[in-house]
Batch of 3 targets.
Target 1
Amino acid sequence: MIKIGDRIWLEPLDGSTRQYQSKMLSVADGVIHISYPVDEQSGKTVYLLNGMQFKASFIGRDGALYMFDTEVKGEMRDPSPMVILTYPGDKYVTRIQRRRYVRVKAKVDAAVHPLNGEFAPFVTMTIDISAGGAALLIPPTHAPLLQPGKAVELWLVLPMRSGEYYYVKTKAKLVRIVTDEHGIAKMSVEFTDLLPQDRVQLIRYSFEQQLDEKKRENEENK
């Protein structure tokens, strides 16, 4: 399931909000070998101690997000520096994201640009978002100029849990436009030429929002 060369993310199970990124180097019996991880917030290499526990995740070939629990077992220097992590086996890897991307409520800063000068660019924010598309608010001045089927260029700013901001640029197709009872116009768009690395980050962002929502619900139910 997990392949050599896959990116892998590690989230500490001690409650820390840090997130580390690494790369799969090899798979052995009950363990995996990864490159020394990098802290996504500081960009610095992280040295892990034996016994440290993490929630590991990676993106499968089907575009789904997979997760498993792991523990640091040691390190190797030959043939190259690498960290040894426990791997429970494919049977115990949890598939989080289905092929049809999960949409989450999120206010993400966005900028909409025309492809052929049909309207003035405008800034807005999303209402919800997924790795396949989003719903955005439309200024009243622009609502009459936007029609289903029109293609636009869309910029998104994703505030990741690590504290960094990830910038996504993609073309998008307007799917539908609706106006609610308060006269607020909203448009749904489908991403049409999203780069693989941008889709990975959108999947990660959506998953992080799901985790935060579950955390808030648990706190409210205490």
Target 2
Amino acid sequence: MPADKVFHLFDRADQLEQTLCQQMNRTLRFRFVLPFFRVVSRLGDGIAWYLLILALPIISPAHGGPIALVMAFAGLTGTLGYRFLKQHLVRERPFINNPVIHCGTPPLDRYSFPSGHTLHATGFTTILLMTLPMVGLTVLPFALCVAASRVILGLHYPTDVLAGALLGVILGLSAVTLAGLA
């Protein structure tokens, strides 16, 4: 494929992503959207996951302790991984690059690729779906809301969220497999 066609393809993909990002961000004009996704985002900072990890031995006395340790290990690994990637890939957040996009809540760091919130949400949910399926299904809607909140609040592009989700699933599958819980 000639270079000009490749450039055009990437330019078109970037335009589509910008449009999708703007459309999702525009939902903030509805009165209930901003407060809802701010709360989801704040809980996705770690609070909800820490509480769940602490509750797992109570929820499942037979298996909760080892699963909680796997989740804690995966959380630490995910944090180190996404921070490394963000520092080296340095993609500015949508609200910085596009003045039309409103920042719905202050970001935890400067760069957007990949989404750490989404990485953790999908990683933890994957671990739970593989080990405690009913608990995993219970947290799945929250994990999906965390992922959506990142674009709606203007903090991430859709590809940041997709990359975070992919990394989270890989991390969750790997953690369960390495721990022998699969």
Target 3
Amino acid sequence: MNKILSAAFIGALSAAPALAGGTHGGMEVGKPGKAAHADREVAVTMKETDDGEMLFEPSSFSFAKDETVKFVITNAGELEHEFVLDTAERNVHHKAMMAKMEMEHDDPNSVRLDPGASGEVVWTFSNAGTFEFACLIPGHYESGMHGPIAVLDGNGGSFTKGTVKKVDAASGKVTIIHEELVNLEMPAMTMVFRVADDAMLDQLKAGDPIEFVAERIKGKLTLTALK
């Protein structure tokens, strides 16, 4: 019986992407950074709402490629929460594993905090792309605890100017009259975009001038950052 359990456990571990092992040479989302070399410090709050939603504040981030960020994370809720940096695909995989067995991350790209506690993650975003921060404790991701991170080439040069034409909160879409989207090789035109986080819709209204980042996520044009 013990041999069967051991084999199953080893199989589960070998099927998962190794977080700790991956960080030595860098992960797709980047690599551990040094607090003394941080380019900026970002405060993150984890909490629950009265209607049962669990969330991060802020709900999205945008950084430059090779930027080192010191995340100062506070659990202002009444439940245990965690903050994990990774790709959306890897987070989905680890979330599924955590639903099957009790696991607690202890890697440079994550921190788990009791209610009222604070912690830090220092991270260098060495690759451009769209990544994710999330809480993978069972049920928390589904209750809203995840958000996009846009990592941009050229020190933020991928932001595009535009004007909001229409906001459709029911479908999670926004129509934008925009300049050339260099990163997507698209000319200036008017297009409909999904949003990576529904909270972005609260920041938009028709007629607003904006600067934004758009990426293709699962084949859909998606806003990943605003300023």
